[in-house]
Write a structure and sequence with these properties.
Largest sheet: none
CATH architecture: Up-down Bundle
CATH class: Mainly Alpha
Structural class: mainly alpha
Order of helices and strands: HHHHHHHHHHHHHHHHHHHHHHHHH
Number of domains: 1
Length: 473
């Protein structure tokens, strides 16, 4: 079965966190989701800070690309390393160390005297961000009861977008300060410290405790996070999964049975990035500047972009189990394509038209962000957790996350150079072409996972009949 009970994920799951019987798991989820918040904060703040840092440290577009790219290279390494540390040292202590690294590296970025030291600090910061993107949803899903897991996965996405919004607000509030970019980056230490402190007081996940032979402690955690009548069954299931995962090897991801699932998962990871979402987030202030806004006004406009981004992430929580994953994925991706085509047309008209109609460009970006947040934003992370057997889910998620960060790096690092080489309009039209390819792939290969068993999902992706699959099993 999928990781969450289909009838009670989404908005109802988040509401359930505030019920008396779920307060403990609610506190755990909120603390763990700080990892998503710091991920979002750093994603958003560099969009504003880069504009001022470039003037302060005297670097151009190549330097801007490296301040973004350095973090992404670190995130690739962090995501890869987190897959091992989460098993070896626990999800809890991996997140604790990630919070500490984030706090120290954020302060290092704030005090950086040169572009090289800034990029070095941001590379280290990337370790923490990559760790957060991988371990935060894993920790939450392993702590939450089945009835809450789906909604809490989406809740982590809401926290990411909240971090982006707070970053944009902080950038706007600090725009008039001397050395404002240093304050913007330095404030990132606050959620890092909060995450580190929070992880000290929360328990290990039951699955990790079982893997380490600490069954009594696992039972104790389950008694605080699950209803009494489900503890024994949940523990037995965790033990069964842990035994099957022990035999899983990385090469099994390319076995004939798993390969089609892996292709779908990696494709979701890649398409999420090559439609250009993080160029809009990382370079949002710069893109708005392209439209004719001055720096101060550009920073203000990004706040509105952050509000749209966060609001539609919340809307996605409401729609996820009412509408389904696949319809949202298809409609949202089509919406992204329309937004990108509109942006391409806007930039094709020339500076006179752009300066006279800047609202067109801003509205196009808002539409694009709204479409992303009801589709590839939350659906990607939720769907990939629903299309893999539990025994290889951790390894598969690590592979998909690395692909996600790798393509994030390439798309973001070369964005400014592409706007010079093929033009601003050509860049967004290229993303739109990728979007058409994504839409075709999703229509043909990505199934609906709502209210469906894992067996049915696997059979559809492999193009088999579920009855035949059961017989083959």
């Amino acid at each position: 079965m999928p990781a969450s009970s289909p009838s009670s994920s989404g908005l109802s799951a988040i509401r359930a966190l505030f019920a008396k019987e779920n307060r403990f798991v609610g506190r755990i989820a909120i603390i763990a989701a700080i990892g998503g918040f710091l991920f979002g904060y750093d994603t958003g703040i560099i969009s504003v800070a880069n504009v001022y840092a470039a003037k302060s440290l005297h670097f151009g577009t190549l330097g801007e690309s490296w301040t973004v790219g350095a973090l992404l290279l670190g995130a690739i390494s962090g995501a890869a390393l987190a897959g091992w540390t989460a098993d070896a040292f626990s999800r809890k202590w991996t997140k604790f160390v990630g919070g500490c690294i984030y706090a120290v590296a954020a302060l290092g970025s704030a005090f950086a005297p040169t572009l090289i030291t800034l990029c070095t600090a941001r590379y280290v910061l990337g370790f923490a961000v990559g760790t957060a993107s991988f371990v935060a949803p894993m920790y939450i899903s392993e702590q939450a009861p089945k009835s809450l897991r789906g909604g809490l996965t989406t809740f982590n996405q809401v926290m990411i977008t909240l971090g982006i919004l707070v970053a944009y607000i902080a950038g706007f509030a600090l725009k008039g300060f001397t050395t404002n970019w240093r304050w913007m980056l330095g404030f990132g230490a606050v959620p890092g410290i909060a995450l580190a402190i929070g992880m000290v007081v929360v328990p290990h996940t039951p699955r990790w405790l079982v893997q380490k032979g600490r069954e009594d402690q696992a039972r104790g955690v389950l008694r605080r996070t699950h209803s009494p009548e489900t503890v024994d069954n949940e523990l037995d299931e965790i033990k069964d999964v842990a035994q099957s995962q022990h035999a899983a090897r990385l090469r099994r991801l390319w076995s004939p049975r798993i390969r089609p699932l892996l292709i779908v998962r990696i494709s979701l990871a890649v398409f999420q990035q090559i439609l250009g979402i993080n160029t809009v987030i990382y370079f949002g202030t710069t893109i708005v500047g392209f439209m004719g806004y001055k720096v101060g006004a550009s920073v203000g406009v990004t706040v509105y972009l952050g509000i749209i981004n966060w609001a539609f992430a919340v809307i996605a929580v409401v729609l996820m189990d009412k509408v389904g994953r696949r319809p949202l994925l298809l409609v949202g991706t089509a919406g992204q394509v329309l937004g990108l085509l509109s942006l391409g047309f806007f930039f094709m008209q020339g500076s006179a038209f752009q300066h006279a109609n800047p609202g067109w460009g801003v509205a196009s970006v808002m539409f694009y962000l709204a479409a992303f947040e009801i589709s590839l934003g939350p659906v990607f992370w939720l769907m990939i957790s629903e299309i893999f057997p539990l025994r290889i889910r951790g390894k598969a998620m690590a592979v998909a996350t690395m692909f996600n960060w790798t393509f994030n790096f390439f798309i973001s690092y070369f964005f400014l150079e592409m706007t010079k080489g093929i033009g601003r309009d050509g860049t967004f039209w290229m993303y739109a072409v990728f979007g058409v390819g994504a839409l075709a792939f999703f229509f043909v290969r990505v199934p609906e996972t709502k209210n469906r068993s894992l067996e049915e999902i696997e059979a559809e992706i492999r193009g088999e009949d579920s009855g035949e699959e059961r017989a083959a099993a």
